[in-house]
Amino acid sequence: MRVDLFDFDLPAENIALRPASPRDSARLLLVPGDGAMEDRIVRDLPSLLRAGDVLVFNDTRVIPAQLEGMRGEARIGATLHKRLGLRQWQAFLRNAKRVREGDRIDFGAGVTAIAGPRDDDGGVTLDFEGEEPVEILLERAGRMPLPPYIASKRATDERDRSDYQTMFAREDGAVAAPTAALHFTPDLTAALAQVGVLTETLTLHVGAGTFLPVKADDTDDHRMHAEWGRIDQDTADRLNAVRAAGGRIIAVGTTSLRLLESATGEDGVIRPFADETRIFITPGYRFRAIDGLMTNFHLPKSTLFMLVSALMGTEKMQSVYKHAIEEGYRFYSYGDSSLLLPE
Q1: Among 58, 148, 188, 301, which one is most buried in terms of CB atoms within 10 A?
Q2: What is the DSSP string of 243-291?
Q3: Residue 19, helix vs strand vs coil
Q4: What is the pLDDT of residues 174-192, one digit of tens each?
């Protein structure tokens, strides 16, 4: 399938640089499969869902995985994206041509790492020196890894340490936030519980590869990045029970959706899962686990816009995004949201 089918023009002014405040005041575009779009706000969710539905959140926690350092006289930027061992991570490097295997990079604050071999995804293995856990080192020397479309327009600041973290964040390991869940507040989740909407959590550690552009001309030639996820037996059992009782499984974010689909067999049964997934969802995919998706607005020609097009139809999503742009919806990680209900 041609990648340019998923292209669209997005004015720069539609890109959000800060989240809505309060979080649940963000706009929400309701997109039913058989009806007209509706302009709502996230706080309307209790009236848009049904008792017995379940919202599935990703409880991964973003770590301050962006580092700035020196290799001799060369300035090197590093974004960690995948843990390989206790002190070893894969990282995407800025100015990578100045780094060779065996070089030491000094990230300041007593944090150093030795560059290892390059990997198939274009990154470099970093072996951190010393005895402290890498998470401690990152708290000392790292910055929150804002997406490039935000970081290119303003500096990361202390406010991002809370803004770029969901209320469900618990499991350290992500280098990008599961941004659909940024819109939720304790008041909103309480209101959802009052009307009988259930909540569940799973874990998918979002990698920096989520921001990589699709460079191929055809989707068949794109190699998806790997991310590690886990669904335990009890969570799988409860989700299967929701479906058996006639409730809908609504993924909050494409990360939750991708893990659910990875853990679900052709029979529609969700099973325990603890592994990497490279699932790449494009039009023609038959969804097995989910009945809807709450998600922010994605980049042109991205794997995530391909995913929502698979759920709702490419022509439909081009129309949805045209409406969102014309109506001034805010795009990307800190932007507004949509609720996609194909049936």
Answers
A1: 58
A2: HHTT--EEEESHHHHHHHHHTB-TTS-B--EEEEE-----TT----S-S
A3: coil
A4: 999 999 999 999 999 999 9
